[in-house]
Amino acid sequence: MHPLLIIFCLTIFAIVTWRNLALGLAILFSLLPTYLIRFHWGPLPTTFLEILVWIVSIIWFIQKIKTVGWRGIIREKINYIKKWPLLALSISLFLLGATINVFLAVDIRAALGEWRAFYVEPIIISYILVTTVKTKKEIHTILFGLMLCGLITSILAIYQHFTGWLVPHAFWANRNTYRVTAWYGFPNGVGLFLAPLLPLLIYSGSSLVKKINHKRAKVLFVICYLLSFICYLLAIVYAKSTGAIIGLFGGLGLYFLLNKKTRVATIVIAIIGIFGIIVTPNSNSLKQEILAQDYSGKLRRDIWSETITYLKLHPLRGTGMASYEEEIVPFRYNKKIEVFHHPHNIFLTVWVNTGLVGLLGFVGILLWFFVTAIRDFKNTESKSLSYTLLIAMCVWLVMSLVDSPYIKNDLALLFWLVVGLMGSTRMSGALYDDF
Which parts of the chain register pLDDT below 70? Predict the structure, then answer.
């Protein structure tokens, strides 16, 4: 992009955000793929998305100072710590581990870039969400921006399926089995981004349609959302992202498990499904894929074994931030294949990048999230959103067992959006004993 165009777009964004912070957040989440627009701001490398994040952060801070002053900001922060001690401690450990591991990295400059983009900035945005988003209208505004981003990504992926436009040659050359990549340059990026959005899309659509009184408008709205849902699904299927598909089934299973009317049937179906997988011949391709016995699964099992071997020697420090590719080389089983950027499991990925301290913090964040979501079921005002966020996180967590849906600018922001919205529902809804 031309520098003058970048400055013009950022100026317009700053004006809109100053007038309506929730709308600014919606625009931010609608432009998540703009982390791919990279340039230098003076001597520092940055991205278009990162500048948007800092514009939102600075405007939020200035408006807070004008509204409540320095003492008010500090008092508010203390209140959040008292209200959510587990979350405050966990985020502190997560950031502490990430910060320490920057100085243990092979390349400190690269590590600082990841520290800034994957840890500091997403957490700041999450805090802004908690302190800013107070109404359902604001939540739906932000979700609409995110859903729009997902829809455009889906349409691009579907278009790629029929044309191959922007698909790297390595995938497009194999015409019979190629996989779409959207903006990301690799197929799993499509599934990792879109799969957790599907529960949010359903929630957003079902909530908004109830407010439309005009019959024709309601029908048109439902058709648009159904088409969006189909586009999301097709994009994931065309990307052939097995982890995302299994994650969606996991989220669907949790939904039926939480519903009292379908709980028993869900358990029975799950038991039958597990038994069916067990008795299915080992030569079955579906069984091999589910149990990680195919080529891709074997590759992942080797990566996990290599990483665990390394972590046995360096359990506290991990590899250092952004240093996995260099540090894992002596431990590799198959030296002929490429060296991957991360170990394709979120817990191993967090461990190698943030050390044991960061891993403990990350597990604490997830624990707070699930306990808070379950407790929030008592509150009828926010129960529906809490259900949705819980299912979205379940989809994310299932995918994360075979991939790392965090170590990417947009995915890190997406994770902390879900966490931030969970906190937002607690602040705007009924408040009760906190964990």
Answer: 1, 172-177, 283-292, 377-383, 426-435
Q: Is 400 within a domain?
A: yes
Looking at this protein, which amino acid is placed at residue 33?
A: P
Q: What backbone phi and psi angles, to 5 degrees, belong to 41?
A: -105, 90
Picking from 109, 112, 144, the residue whose alpha carbon sits closest to that of residue 28 is: 144
What are the respective helix, strand and coil percentages of the chain, to the nearest 5?
Answer: 75, 0, 25
Task: Give the range of the structural domain holding residue 307, as residue numbers without chain letter.
Answer: 3-428
Taking each helix axis as running N to C, give the angle between helix 295-313 and helix 346-375, from 0 to 180 degrees, rounded to the nearest 10: 90
**What is the pTM for the complete model shown?**
0.93
Q: Which residue, 140, 200, 138, 149, is CA-closest to 32? A: 149
Residue 251: closest CA among 359, 146, 391, 149: 391
The tally of domains found in the chain comes to 1
Q: Is residue 71 part of a domain?
A: yes
What is the largest distance, in Å, between two alpha-carbon atoms of the chain?
Answer: 67
